Amino acid sequence: MYRAFGLLRPDSDFTSTEALARLRAKFPDFTATREGDTVTIARGDWWIALTLVSGDEIREETNGLVGHLAGVEPDEAEALIASGRRVEVGTDVPDPFMEHFNDYLSVVEVLKSFNGLLAVDPKEPGVL
């Protein structure tokens, strides 16, 4: 199982539509779909999704998370918290032999291609 967050500043250019386009370009052999604010890529039995989420609980969680991230300046932390939005990347499909680890890294690479987005590992708080 793989997880990542894309913390968004208010001026971020992230959109689900553009994420779908970039993922299709990066993964031409995968099926890429969008349903609302969720973009999913899949091949065979494996899939990974990016979901844009927002709300007060996201703001609170971001506040707790940015305090554990090295190198995040106070002004940037405030902007990330104020946004109240993030992109959640993840899959529940087990990958015991890490056959899809590089796919996960490529999804994170696409995530990081957006301006105003800070990609982080929510399990071991750190910048990706």
Please tell me what the overall shape is: globular
Low-confidence stretches: none
- The total of helices stands at 4
Spatial strand arrangement across the major sheet: 2-3-4-5-1-6-7
CATH architecture: 2-Layer Sandwich
Please name the CATH topology.
TATA-Binding Protein
Count of strand segments: 7
What is the CATH C-level name? Alpha Beta
Describe the structure.
It is a single chain. With 128 residues, the chain is an alpha+beta fold. It has a single domain, classed as TATA-Binding Protein (2-Layer Sandwich). Helices cover 34% and strands 30% of the residues. The protein is built from four helices and seven strands, in the order βαβββααβαββ. The protein has a seven-stranded antiparallel β-sheet with strand order 2-3-4-5-1-6-7, with helices on both faces. Helix 1 (16-26) crosses helix 4 (101-112) and helix 2 runs antiparallel to helix 3. The longest helix has 12 residues, at 101-112. The protein is globular. 24% of the residues are buried. The mean pLDDT is 96.
List keywords for this structure.
128 residues; alpha+beta; seven-stranded antiparallel sheet; 4 helices; 7 strands
Concise synopsis of the structure shown:
The chain has 128 residues and is of the alpha+beta class. It has 4 helices and 7 strands.
List the helices and strands and how they pair.
Elements: E1 3-8, H1 16-26, E2 31-35, E3 38-43, E4 46-54, H2 56-66, H3 74-83, E5 85-90, H4 101-112, E6 117-121, E7 126-127
Antiparallel strand pairs: 1-5, 1-6, 2-3, 3-4, 4-5, 6-7
Helix pairs in contact: 1-4, 2-3
